[in-house]
C-alpha cells in the first residue's frame, strides 16, 4: 500500500474517531466524498454540493 493511501486511511480514521467522540456517525456518502477529496478527485466544494443534494438541502448563497 502506498504512503499516500496509508495517509488517506489514517486521516479518515482520525475523522471517524473525532466524530465518534462527539457521538456522530457520518453517512457512507459523506465518507466516500471525504475520501475523494483527500485523493484529489473532487474539491471540497463539490463534495459539499453532492452531500447537500443527496439530502435535498437547499442553501442560500451569499450573493
Explained architecture:
It comes from Fusibacter ferrireducens. This is Antitoxin VbhA family protein. With 63 residues, the chain is an all-alpha fold. It has one domain (3-54). It contains three helices and no strands. It has helices spanning 3-21, 28-38, 44-54. It starts with a helix and ends in a 9-residue tail after the last helix. The model has no long low-confidence stretch (mean pLDDT 90).
Question: What keywords describe this structure?
Answer:
63 residues, mainly alpha, VbhA-like, Antitoxin VbhA family protein
Short description:
With 63 residues, the protein is mostly helical. The protein is 65% helix and 0% strand.
- Total of helices: 3
Residue ranges: pLDDT <50 for 5 or more in a row?
A: none
Largest sheet: none
Distance between the termini: 44 Å
Computed CA radius of gyration, to the nearest angstrom:
13 Å
Number of domains: 1
Question: By helix and strand content, what is the structural category?
Answer: mainly alpha
Order of helices and strands: HHH
Approximately what portion of the residues adopt beta-strand conformation? Answer: under 5%
Give the rounded overall mean pLDDT. Answer: 90
Amino acid at each position: 500500500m502506498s504512503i499516500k493511501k496509508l495517509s488517506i486511511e489514517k486521516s479518515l480514521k482520525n475523522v471517524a474517531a473525532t466524530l465518534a467522540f462527539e457521538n456522530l456517525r457520518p453517512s457512507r456518502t459523506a465518507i466516500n466524498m471525504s475520501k475523494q477529496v483527500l485523493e484529489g478527485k473532487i474539491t471540497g466544494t463539490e463534495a459539499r454540493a453532492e452531500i447537500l443534494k443527496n439530502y435535498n438541502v437547499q442553501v442560500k448563497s451569499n450573493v
